[in-house]
Every structure is written in structure tokens, then in C-alpha cells.
Amino acid sequence: MIFKEPISRRTMLKGLGTAIALPYLEAMMPALAFGGTGQKAAIPVRMAFIYVPNGIHMPDWTPIGAGADYPIPAVLEPLKPFQKDLCVLTGLAQNNARALGDGPGDHARAMSTFLTGTHIKKTAGADIKAGISVDQVAAQNVGSLTRFPSLEIGCERGLQSGACDSGYSCAYQSNLSWRSDSLPMGKEVDPRLLFDRLFSNQIPGETEESRQRRERYKRSILDFVTEDANALKAKLGSIDQRKLDEYLSGIRELERRLTRIEPNRIGDSSIPQRPSGIPKEYQDHIRLMCDLLVLAFQGDLTRISTFVFANDGSNRSYKSIGVPEGHHDLSHHQGNKEKQEKIKKINHFHISQAAYLLSKLKAIKEQTGTLLDHSMIVYGSCIGDGNRHNHNDLPILLLGKGAGSFKPGRHIVYPRDTPLSNLFMTMLELMGSPVKSFGDSTGTLSDLI
After folding, report:
1. Mean pLDDT of all residues in the chain?
2. Distance between CA 340 and CA 388 in Å, rounded?
């Protein structure tokens, strides 16, 4: 279908306190001439980084043999349906997460070095110093194209000051994303607050009035954009109408799930009277954040995100999967087989949540494939084995095809201590944000492309 007046990519459905971006539609394809042949609008590449703490049980993570059609190892089993959509990268390291003369503090260094590739300053004071993270390098270049230059989310808030790991500031252990060497990007952990942020118009008075009406009269945020939505549908073809309905239905379903969460105040000083949207069950929490991330990518609200499942050093227990002990305590297993089995359960649980995210991304069709096809997502940790606290041979997955730039479905084994920063150099190039160097990089990983 050809549109003489294509719909702008930045079109939003607007109402009181509400602004809902649109997914990619055929009506957004530009016409080359009046009544002429249309061409497909370029689909952007999305970039995300998922962090899990305390290392992995590597014997059940690392595939046997390199190349394609490798046997999926036990920890990665939930990803088997997506094996053709991912690469397992073995041999990568973050050398600057090592002590390098600074003594203990591997959890603080792991978290803050993972995406920066820099050796952080050991301090428990305000004079923190890390480095700009890869997501923020990309945001500086392409972030202006979307409503949110980047999105920082997680499931554990953490402290932003004070002493935490062996004389390191808590800011190091709580932040994955760094805008500058002294400015970490705090993450949002409350899915209800994140929902409001994504779909409000950011006008304080209107946003608050909309929220109060929704809560008082049990209305949906979509009720405030009905007029705009109906007017837009009248201009769309049947395929676009279906896409829009699916997208709005996804927003409404997520809203329903948020309203079912039992209020559990967490003392957010910015909205002191509002109940939290944090579920009691950890899996529910992760999956709500996954769904919000998918909507943010689908509506092109952002193209760059970091997602921290848990801060490094986290001692969260996993009673729901039969592991009542703390994760960090178990990670110091000292070769104890029982503890290692419990670590495997935790690793398997985390990977199951990543598989959930992939299923959502793969279910969304775009012009030349799926949302997963147009994404590049790094999943991993900056500690290899939690007992050794090593920062080489890291557990790293690359998920998605980067809009056709990557050849997934492989286990790639790199020479020992190949910088993880080389992967980030490669990703920045594909995001249209090439740099001459990043962290301790020595080049790009050309074999990925």
C-alpha cells in the first residue's frame, strides 16, 4: 500500500498526561514521489546489555566444540529454541577488572568495569572514577533519535554512596552504565514507575492528573488516547491496524499485570504516597521489566538499554527454585558439589528469563524480520567462576542478528584474554558510533560479522 503522505516515525498518540509512541508501520514508509514507488524505511538496530552477578558454573555453561550445531550445555538449555539466534563467545576477558595491585574488591570492579573496560579508582568516598560505558558512547551518537537516549533498568537498586566491597564505593557495585568517569546512570527498578515514564508526556501537572484519574476510576492509560488512536486507524491499512492493535493490547495487558501487584511501599522519595509496582516474586519482577524493555524497543522509545538482573555480590536467595541460600555465599563453593548444583540452578533460572525476553522479541514482526533480528544483546557477567573471582574466560552470549550484521548459531572460541572491549568496539561500529578504541580494546571481532 502506498501512502502519499506517510506517517512520521515520531507520531504519538496523545491525551491527558499521556504520549504513546508507535511501532513501525507500513504507513511510515516514505514515498519517493507523489503516487510513486515506496521504499522500506530503515529499521534501526537496538542494543542491550544484561548483567548477572557472581559468575557462572562454567563446566555446564561452555559448549563442547566450536562452530555451529554445538550440543547445548545444561545451563543454556532454556535457549535451545533460540540456538540459531545466538553466539556463545568463549575466551573473552576484562583485564581491568583484575586487582592490578588494588587488592580485594572483585565484585565492585566487575560491575563497574564490565561495560567500561577501565580500571576503577579504589575509593569509598565521593571521588569515584570509572569510565564511560559502551551504552553511553552509543547514546551520545544515536540517542537523540529517540525519546530516551538510553534506558537503565534492573531488579536491585543498591546504594549510591558509602563503602561496600573491600573499600570500594557502593556506587561501583550498583551501576552498570556510566555517562562519564564520575557519573553513573542510576537504574529504575520499579516497573510501575518505568511504565509511567515510558508512556507519560512528561508534563508534571498533566502526568499527575492522568495518574490520579486512572487510579481513582480504574481507567487505562489507553483511555486518554482513544480519540487519537481511532483517527490514526482510519488512515491505516489492515496490516497496520492489526500491528497497532497488537501493540496497544500489549500495553494494556502489561498495565493489568501492574495493577494486580500487591502494594509494597519501598520509600521512593519522589512519589512518597504511591505504592510500588515491585512484585514479591523475583521472576515476575524480571519479566515485567523484560516486557517494558520490549515495548520501549518496539515503539522506538529508545534503542539502547542496560538491564541488571542483580548487582554483583548480590546475596539474594532463590527459594522459588529450591535454593534458600544466598547467591553470593554459594558462589564461594570451594569445590563443594552440592553448592555447585545450586549455583547451576540459579544460572539456569537467569537464562530462563533471558529466553523469555527472546521469545517476546522474536514474536514481534518488523519489515525485514523480527525485533530480535534487529537487536544485538549481550548477556553475561564480569566474573567467570564465582569461587575464583577470575575476570577471564567470561560467560558471554551475543543474542540477535544486529539487523543481519551477525552470523549467529555458533560457539566461537577466542584466544585467551581477548578483550571483551573488542566486542563492544564491534557493536559500536554497527550502531553507527565507531570509535578508534574503547577501554583496553585491540580491535574489533571481525569474525562475528
Report:
1. 91
2. 13
